[in-house]
Recover the amino acids of this structure.
């Protein structure tokens, strides 16, 4: 598969053997080496020092002579990125890349049809939720086992309320922080946890502290702000004789409170989706990521919101996002987002462009710019309306960028805390995890979807077997409305829920 006319490489859609011939655009090419599924084939001679082009953009420099028909990968290709870059505000119309080079505006948007709806929960503060769960949030990690035990016992005690749909479940999300932290690290923990407390997928929240930690409840409440005491209850374990008994009393009150909410039709403009890829392969930027980008554009066109993160995986493709900034202030915020993360690497004496991962490379991705050009496609082609710091919540509808590393669990937890109701997670390698928000796992290729069907929710690999982008994006959009309306994702069926918090500084 050759993606754009300017590319000097193509992607192998099956394992290719040395000596066989293939044909691309009426050009016959003899394969000079065994080339794995998903890896790159040189379509012409590429001299040492010349750029290798994919998606119409450079993805690195040849470090040796590459013959036409040769395998292009880590042995003969390196990143072309180095140092910090000066950026200039030059807004331009974004040119789509990906599986369908020319992507048309959807018929729904052209017709100006009324926004679709999903069956969600309207909260008293006006926000929408897609689940009616009870969340137990720890202020500190040393009470993880206590809260796990309480959540397990509560699931049993309120089994009837869960089975009858009064609530959707009772969950706790453990983490190791909240004590022995200083400065920015403590603030990150407090902001991240406060975002979970405020999340509308939780019909009720029980905050549990130990009592002696750095993250004192009185300080933590400043990050939460004003809250409804019927929806949010607090418990300090050192101040009660039996934390289980008191915790169960408070959970009983929260179950009664949350049980008053019922699903009702809500417009897609109320929906917030998080965009994430992990365990990417060479097809991520061809199938799943452009597909998710189409969904992001569609939801934004109806007045909804999408959030794109993984800042280190914007390196090499960041100007595509900068050129779509709504104004110069937003452009400067994106520049700071990129440069601040580069400074984070430099401060820790780490190589800024040390990416992709071993799994990415095995899947056919060679350089960071190749990975980033695929990664950023999840943001579609909408303008970037705002840039959020780690732990911030969305303020403006539309496509937002969020400060967070590429780590799957850290970034998806940050997306949830920022307000994402549901995460669209694309993967070419497969992964079972999920954050507190429901997570739709989208396979980049059909082989993965079939092999790991217990993890995967959607097969974007159908784009390579004859199904068009319009048809497949309509199917995925319909599925998302069903998930928002209460259908369980595979991670929910497997009861896979977790969280992780970003840490950069000293531990006492």
């Amino acid at each position: 598969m050759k993606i754009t006319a300017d590319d000097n490489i193509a992607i192998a859609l099956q394992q290719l053997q040395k000596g066989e011939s293939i044909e691309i655009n009426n050009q016959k090419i003899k394969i000079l080496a065994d080339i794995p599924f998903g890896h790159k084939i040189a379509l012409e001679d590429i001299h040492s020092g010349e750029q290798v082009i994919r998606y119409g953009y450079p993805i690195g420099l040849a470090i040796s002579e590459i013959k036409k028909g040769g395998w292009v990968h880590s042995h003969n290709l390196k990143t072309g990125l180095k140092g910090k870059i000066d950026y200039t505000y030059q807004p331009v119309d974004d040119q789509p890349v990906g599986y369908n080079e020319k992507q048309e505006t959807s018929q729904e948007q052209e017709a100006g049809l009324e926004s679709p709806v999903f069956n969600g929960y309207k909260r008293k503060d006006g926000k929408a939720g897609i689940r009616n769960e009870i969340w137990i949030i720890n202020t500190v990690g040393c009470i993880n086992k206590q809260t796990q035990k309480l959540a397990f016992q509560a699931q049993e005690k309120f089994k009837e309320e869960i089975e009858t749909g009064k609530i959707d479940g009772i969950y706790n999300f453990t983490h190791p922080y909240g004590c022995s932290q200083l400065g920015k690290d403590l603030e990150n923990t407090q902001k991240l946890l406060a975002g979970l407390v405020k999340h509308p997928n939780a019909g009720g929240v029980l905050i549990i502290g130990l009592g002696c930690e750095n993250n004192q409840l009185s300080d933590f409440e400043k990050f939460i702000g004003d809250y409804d005491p019927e929806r949010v209850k607090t418990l300090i374990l050192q101040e009660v004789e039996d934390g289980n008994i008191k915790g169960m009393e408070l959970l009983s009150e929260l179950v009664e409170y949350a049980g008053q909410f019922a699903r009702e039709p809500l417009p897609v403009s109320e929906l917030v989706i998080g965009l994430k890829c992990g365990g990417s392969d060479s097809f991520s930027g061809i199938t799943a990521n452009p597909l998710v980008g189409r969904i992001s554009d569609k939801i934004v066109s109806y007045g909804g919101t999408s959030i794109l993160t993984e800042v280190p995986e914007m390196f090499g493709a960041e100007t595509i996002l900068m050129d779509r900034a709504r104004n110069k202030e937003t452009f400067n915020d994106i520049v700071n987002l990129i440069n601040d993360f580069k400074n984070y690497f430099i401060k820790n004496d780490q190589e800024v462009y040390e990416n992709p991962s071993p799994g990415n490379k095995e899947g056919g991705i060679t350089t960071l710019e190749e990975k980033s050009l695929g990664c950023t496609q999840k943001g579609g082609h909408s303008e970037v309306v705002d840039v959020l710091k780690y732990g911030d919540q969305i303020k403006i509808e539309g496509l937002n960028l969020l400060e967070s590393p590429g780590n799957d669990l850290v970034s998806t937890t940050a997306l949830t805390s920022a307000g994402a109701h549901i995460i669209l997670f694309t993967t070419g390698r497969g992964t079972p995890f999920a954050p507190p928000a429901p997570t739709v796992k989208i396979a980049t290729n059909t082989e993965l979807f079939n092999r790991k069907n217990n993890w995967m929710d959607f097969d974007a690999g159908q784009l390579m077997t004859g199904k068009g982008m319009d048809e497949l994006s309509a199917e995925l959009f319909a599925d998302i409305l069903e998930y928002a309306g209460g259908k369980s994702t595979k991670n929910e069926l497997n009861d896979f829920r977790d969280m992780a918090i970003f840490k950069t500084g000293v531990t006492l």
In short: The chain has a mean pLDDT of 93. The radius of gyration is 24 Å. The longest strand covers residues 202-209. The longest helix spans residues 328-347.
